[in-house]
Design a protein that fits this description.
With about 325 residues, the protein is an alpha+beta fold. It contains nine helices and ten strands. The strands form two sheets. Strands 1-3-2-9-8-7-6-10 form an eight-stranded mixed beta sheet, sandwiched between helices. A two-stranded antiparallel sheet has the order 4-5.
């Protein structure tokens, strides 16, 4: 196969996922390893080994060399998942990493916001939580905050209050309903990666782990209306996730950053009834500088712009 750059691969992925799927209909592609084509709607027990769900296989194409030469990811090491629900087909870059579970970090705010709205802990994007008076490292956190303000500034203490109000039993039930990674909340108070107690939690470098594949599966379940959350509840979260736009396309996502160079950007792009879910995960950089969620977001913007053939521009907060 003739060598192809990473950025040139995404139009090929889009052609397969969007033009062939149902949005029009063909098999998924992978790069960087073996191919598994999962079926839509597959679920598994929370504790099972993290792997792509079983499903009918289709054609397998060699991994384009461009993925390995840094054209898209630059000096960062990572993986990517694209998922088109209309066809149930996935495209995976670095499949083994896509099937590996990592801490979700702040991408879990998507889930906790849905939980809070569903259970009456939160009522709208204007729902406020009271500031304790502690001095937090992010100036925007040092005040009473609304849900929208907390989501957009990725405020840990706000969502710590939401989770504690929900309680362990309810959180465990809803994680299981989503098949969200290993569903492990045993380190409820967290692992102590941050200096203040309300800046820690099971979703921050602790017991809860989720793979990039499981991230897109959970998001597709939530925002397609297949899960337990109502359209009104998910609309609030979706509005807060708006990160980019181009023509009639909208890009929704949430970043997440860990202290050891783990970085996420996960969400979906949408044009009317057409949706493409994604997860980008980074875990190291050849430069020695730890990647951040913003790094993953920049990579995703480039890749997704190529995937749908438009140029996404960031939205102002």
């Amino acid at each position: 196969m003739q060598k192809t750059s990473a950025r040139r691969l995404f139009p090929a992925l889009a052609a397969c996922l969007l033009l062939c799927a149902g949005l029009f209909g063909c098999g998924a592609q992978t790069a960087g390893g073996s191919t598994v084509v999962p079926s839509a709607g597959s679920t598994k027990p929370c504790a099972s080994a993290p792997q792509a769900p079983a499903g009918p296989s289709s054609s397998v194409q060699p991994a384009p060399a461009g993925w390995e030469t840094g054209h898209l990811f630059g000096e960062a090491s990572g993986c990517a998942v694209l998922y088109a629900p209309a066809s149930g087909q996935y495209s995976l870059y670095q499949p083994q990493m896509c099937e590996t579970r990592f801490s979700p970090y702040s991408t879990f705010k998507i889930i906790s916001a849905c939980m809070g709205l569903h259970n009456g802990v939160l009522e709208s994007e204007d729902s406020r939580m009271r500031y304790s008076g502690a001095q937090y490292p992010v100036p925007a956190w040092n005040a009473d905050l609304s849900l929208k303000e907390a989501f957009q500034s990725s405020c840990v203490w706000y969502f710590r209050q939401v989770i504690d109000t929900l309680g362990e039993e309810r959180v465990a039930q809803e994680l299981k309903a989503l098949s969200y990674g290993n569903c492990d909340i045993s380190q409820w108070e967290g692992s102590g990666i941050n200096p203040l107690p309300d800046m820690n939690g099971f979703w921050l470098g602790a017991s809860l782990k989720v793979s990039p594949i499981e991230q897109v599966q959970a998001l597709a379940q939530i925002f397609s209306g297949a899960g337990i959350y109502t359209a009104q509840e998910t609309a609030v979260v979706k509005d807060m996730m708006l990160a980019g736009e181009a023509e009639s396309w909208r890009l929704y996502g949430k970043t997440g950053t860990g202290p050891a160079g783990e970085a996420w950007f996960t969400g979906f792009v949408q044009n009317g009834s057409q949706s493409l879910y994604f997860a980008f995960f980074l875990n190291s950089s050849a430069s020695g500088q730890a990647p951040s969620g913003d790094t993953a977001k920049e990579i995703a913007f480039r890749a997704l712009s190529d995937a749908v053939g438009v140029q996404f521009q960031p939205c102002e907060a």
